[in-house]
């Protein structure tokens, strides 16, 4: 189970591609998520990364993470201190890269959220997102048990370090 309380939303739109998440020119300098976190979403908003606080949650529209299949687009979000992304939909590859690296990808209706809303997320097999501003609770798409186990372990590498196999 993952329980994120009193987080702040950072609102994004539709079709946020992996090159917007982290610019290709930055990946030539380093692949270290902590280094790259300072450049998160800089092509959309050059000052964005400087305003991120530990525990912020990205809230986006449809097709989050579209574009190239680079894993660093998921790890840079973690490197910036963001543990979850709530979106109407994800590119299939980004979703899987997020799970494998311990970034919680939540598929839910994000239409009622605004920049800076306080939210909480409770993720087990069922996933619930609560918007503190509106008092509204959104039921997100459920996650397969194995994905929740991988996320709870911190990603696929820590999961395999303990379990050595996909034990369900």
Q: How do the helices and strands line up, and which of them pair or pack?
A:
Elements: E1 2-11, H1 18-21, H2 24-27, H3 33-36, H4 48-51, E2 57-60, H5 72-79, E3 84-87, H6 92-101, E4 104-107, E5 118-123, E6 127-131, E7 137-140, H7 145-153, H8 156-163
Parallel strand pairs: 1-2, 2-3, 3-4
Antiparallel strand pairs: 1-5, 5-6, 6-7
Explain this structure.
Helices cover 30% and strands 22% of the residues. With 168 residues, the chain is of the alpha/beta class. A seven-stranded mixed β-sheet has the order 4-3-2-1-5-6-7. The longest helix has 10 residues, at 92-101. It is globular and about 40 Å long.
Q: Give me the CATH superfamily.
A: Aconitase, domain 4
Class per helix and strand makeup: alpha/beta
Portion of residues in beta strands equals: 15-25%
What is the class in the CATH system?
A: Alpha Beta
Topology as a string of helices (H) and strands (E): EHHHHEHEHEEEEHH
- Second CATH tier, the architecture: Alpha-Beta Barrel
Task: Compute the separation of the termini in Å.
Answer: 15 Å
Q: How big is the Rg?
A: 15 Å
- CATH topology name: Aconitase, domain 4
């Amino acid at each position: 189970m993952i329980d994120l309380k009193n987080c702040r939303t950072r609102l994004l739109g539709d079709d946020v591609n992996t090159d917007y998440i982290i610019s290709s020119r930055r990946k030539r300098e380093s692949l270290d998520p902590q280094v790259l976190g300072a450049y998160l979403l800089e092509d959309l908003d050059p000052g964005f990364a400087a305003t991120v606080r530990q525990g912020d949650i990205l809230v986006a529209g449809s097709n989050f993470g579209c574009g190239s299949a680079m894993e660093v687009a998921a790890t840079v979000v973690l490197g910036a201190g963001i543990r979850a992304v709530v979106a109407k939909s994800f590119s299939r590859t980004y979703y899987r890269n997020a799970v494998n690296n311990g970034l919680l990808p939540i598929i839910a209706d994000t239409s009622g959220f605004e920049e800076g809303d306080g939210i909480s997320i409770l993720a087990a097999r069922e996933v619930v997102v609560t918007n503190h501003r509106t008092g509204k609770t959104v039921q997100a798409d459920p996650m397969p048990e194995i994905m929740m186990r991988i996320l709870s372990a911190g990603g696929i590498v820590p999961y395999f370090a303990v379990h050595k196999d996909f034990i369900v």
